[in-house]
Amino acid sequence: MPVMELKEYKDCSILNKLKQEEDCPKMLLTITNFAFSKMVQNLMHQLDSEFESKRGRPAYPRTLLLIVVLYCFSIDIANYTKMEEECKKNKFLLIVTCGLKPSRNSFANFLNKSDAKVIKKVFIATLVLLNDLHFLDFVKLFVDGTDAIVRASRNNKITPKEVERLKLMNEWNLLHNNTPKSINRTIKGLEEKLEFYKNDEEMCKTINSILKRINLYNTHIFSKLDIYSTILNERNIGSVSVSFPEACWMKTKKGIYDFAFNLQEIMTENHIILTGMLLTQSNDWKTIKDVLKNIYETIDLFIEMQREFGERKNYNEIQKRIREHILIADSGYFSTENLYHLFINKINALVMPKKLSEDHNNNLRRENEYKEKRKKSTKKDFIRVKNGYICPSGRFMRLVEVKKVKRWKPHKEDALPDICKTKKYIFKTYSCKGCPNIENCKHQRLVIHISDLIYEMTEKFLNKRYKIHYKARFSRSEGINGFLKGDNGVLKLIGTTEKAVDNEIQLRNTIYNLTRLINLKDTAY
Asked: Per the confidence metrics, is the pTM higher than 0.85?
């Protein structure tokens, strides 16, 4: 493999050579200019020092790999082999690499082994650029989640019982190393064990189960035994992926189950990604705690980099805006746990209540002549309005009383503040005068079991002023999630480890913000 010294690569006037090419893509110019900025070069120097070795050939400069990976993501190339091929045939990338042709392993190592905090700072460098140009605003932050599918077969799982069988195979010294000769030795050893335990029905059943999945019982998979055990115990689940145990089994937007991560993106009002992260929760009910933590960590790193490399000195303004921002989310986040974390962190939030979301969706279904989705509940026909409900007969029902729920046994809510505890909200019809159903009416009283937080959030959402804020959410989240997904509407991650996919998301978000920078600035450099 031909290799150049890092100093030689830095001294090459790559950007000037690209500018001389009339048909050079604007995005590649932007990426190259970004990668050779003082701010990013400082980060690349940290990565290069990680790969310095006195033995063997020098590693490719991290700047080279960063430019290629970012550019490939920008043109929807998300495959290590295709990245390698692009370096061989793309005349502009040949200028960037000075004729070098990195292999697929170079790109895999770049994502697998690069320091995650350094790669996160590469993304934050885009925020510094946008802030210096006065494009960054924190008045409204929109949060939304989507599934990010990993490279792991849906059918290749390992269960707690199989983990125990792996331990047993190791005790018997019958683990193979995936070669035909080794597998045959293992099978022969198991057949001998069958003969030895022929009178033990349970042990024979265990050995036959091992023989059915003989490929599972190898030394490589056994090396991950602690990971499998830890995740199975922590998540209390029935199985994990053999090749990617950190991923979670979740229902994707395509309606099928697959191994994936829950990608959370936080967006500013003018379509800029503030931060993004991969979580292992299969839904959004408990994600706000992690979202807030990530926002604060990002802001701390952002201010640190702004001080060192930025032109503007608006640190106080940034911190003030973050304290005063409105966090806007859809009904998938409407849970007591999420609202609790917003409450204790004193976050001004607007989260769509599930009841209002269901009513809105059913209205759309009626307009389009589709069948409504209805829950089997006697309360489904009560319409939620400001300060109360509308009964099925069209009469307004006002809130008349709030009662505490008496519990005779210890409950999980006992440790929560009073505002988070479930209470009885009692609504009664204000006036039934003139109602044709007054004699047989069973809707004069409605009892809803909710917390004060849920009631107050619903009341807030019924305010027209807040509805205007919420309407802006769709264009932000759909625009960004759509950018990250492929042609088939699915985001497939190319990394094969948790660190690799975390780094990949930061670089995908970097490309999004650089694209947005071009749109806002209308120039490449």
From this structure: yes
**What 8-state DSSP symbol labels residue 274?**
E
Distance CA 354, CA 351 (A): 9
- Please state whether beta strands 445-451 and 348-351 pair in parallel, antiparallel, or not at all (unpaired): unpaired
**Residue 56: pLDDT over 80:** no
Q: How many CA atoms lie within 13 A of 131 on its CB side?
A: 23
Q: Are strands 240-241 and 383-385 parallel, antiparallel or unpaired?
A: unpaired
Measure the CA–CA gap between 63 and 33, rounded to whole angstroms.
11
Sign of CA dihedral 477, 478, 479, 485: positive
Contact, 383 vs 462, CB < 8 A?
A: no
507 token code pair: 């670089």
Closest CA to 356 of 277, 466, 439, 500: 466
pLDDT in tens, 342-380: 999 999 999 988 878 777 777 767 767 666 666 656 677
- Distance separating alpha carbons of residues 162 and 172, to the nearest angstrom: 15
- Longest distance between any two alpha carbons in the chain, whole Å: 92
**Region class of 329: left (phi > 0), else alpha (psi between -120 and 50), else beta:** beta
User: How far is residue 35 from each of residues 310, 329, 518, measured CA to CA in Å?
Assistant: 16, 34, 15
CA separation for the pair 332, 284 (Å, rounded): 6
